[in-house]
Amino acid sequence: FFFLMIRRPPRSTQSRSSAASDVYKRQAFNILNFLGLKPVNVSSLHQKEDYYDQLINHFDPQDIRKFRQRYYVVDDFYNPKLQRVFLYICGEGECTGIRNQFTLQLAQRLEAKVVALEHRYYGVSQPFGEANLSLENLRYLTAEQALEDLASFLQFVKTTKEFNVNEKSRWITIGGSYPGALSAWFRYKYPHLTVGALGSSAVVNPIVDFTAFDEQIKLSARKSGQWCFDAIKELNSRVESTLFNDSKGAKALREQFGAHGLTNTEFLWFFSDIFVELIQYGARRELCNALKDQSHDVRLEWLSKNYQRVIRPQDYGTYFLANETYDHERNGRQWMYQQCSQFGWMQTAPIDDRTSMRSKLVNLDFYRRVCKLAYGEGIWPNIEEFNYQFGATRLEVTKLILTNGDEDPWKWAGVRSSRSKGIYAYEIVCDDCAHCVDSVSYTHLTLPTIYSV
């Protein structure tokens, strides 16, 4: 029902020419007009919160241990005659309800039910309750287990009368970033359970040495002007010099940014991510405007007052990542474990110094040390095995829509071209079009150009 609205443009029009761009613009906004999306007042929705008894280990038939996995249901727009269901996939953080505007607007337009499942090991969905997050307890934190969770939960909804969903119901998975990848992988692994999938900024390609990330930060910053990237590069360089050559200045930096527990290299990791996160989440123009024609000290002051919007310094300290204490609001230890054990995405400086803004000390040896100190010996991703299993950018599925913002560095871990008949890949071009920009609300965008690449 949803994919009839998206038609793949003819092969002859798939280029970056201005004529093609106009074609895609008309196509995109014809789609949006057809959808007739309207903002949803989330606070007025009747969200049901409940728990599902989920297997801890789906891959051992002798292991029948279960845990309580939280889920949410929104029925406000549901028309049972149509049997349309969106499975919104929650990711690497506590899931506190169904609040994604785009998903809710689609549900409102298409009279669909929305269900959401909290990811295992995040929020209150803990396989071992409030026991510690030891390495032994974390061993069931894998993408494969998470996909099985979704499949099991989907079947539970279909077979439980109170949901008013039958075996003929039509399901679409929706997710952004890592959940976007889960949405794509779910479509690949369980094509019989859904009629399609949507992945916004879906990072389907695990990469260990992710130098392309910083290369995109440069390209995105340069949309404001070369001076913006130069300012970012200079800030990182001067901070590195201060940390290693000026003990008094290094102490003042840690105090200014509330990063007392970080080593010098951990601080460089944290500091470079301030720029990364601001650009990644659509604040590139704000960041560049704040840095323009300012002194080093003024730039540092602005950063020290604004970094809290996107990151916390403690999440970059191995002392914190190694802490096994459970807290339902905590996700740093779990997510870094997933990176260290399966996905990689270690953001390192490109070889070409002209495209690098972060310190070359934040390299693979540094990340190996982080993984070792936080989780012990032998924890390092085997991405070849994982990508062999799930296909990476060679994913072959049908009825899968993948979108990326043109300023998003994560797009280099995703699918950026419609290479098969069943995958529709789109890039959204506008100022500050960054990570998961389309999954918030299409109504908030100001006429971006959308084109298939």
pLDDT averaged residue by residue: 89
Class of secondary structure makeup: alpha/beta
Shape field: globular
* Strand neighbour order, sheet with most strands: 1-2-4-3-5-6-9-10-11
Total helical elements: 16
The residue ranges in which pLDDT falls below 50 over 5 or more consecutive positions are 1-34, 441-453
Total beta strands: 11
Describe the sheet with the most strands.
Answer: 9 strands, mixed
Radius of gyration from CA coordinates: 22 Å
SSE topology:
Layout: H1 18-35, E1 47-55, E2 66-74, E3 84-89, H2 101-110, E4 113-117, H3 135-138, H4 143-159, E5 170-176, H5 178-189, E6 196-200, E7 207-209, H6 212-221, H7 226-245, H8 247-257, H9 264-280, H10 284-291, H11 296-306, H12 318-321, H13 332-343, E8 344-346, H14 364-375, H15 383-390, E9 400-405, E10 423-429, H16 437-440, E11 449-452
Parallel strand pairs: 3-4, 3-5, 5-6, 6-9, 7-8, 9-10
Antiparallel strand pairs: 1-2, 2-4, 10-11
Helix pairs in contact: 6-9, 7-8, 7-9, 13-14
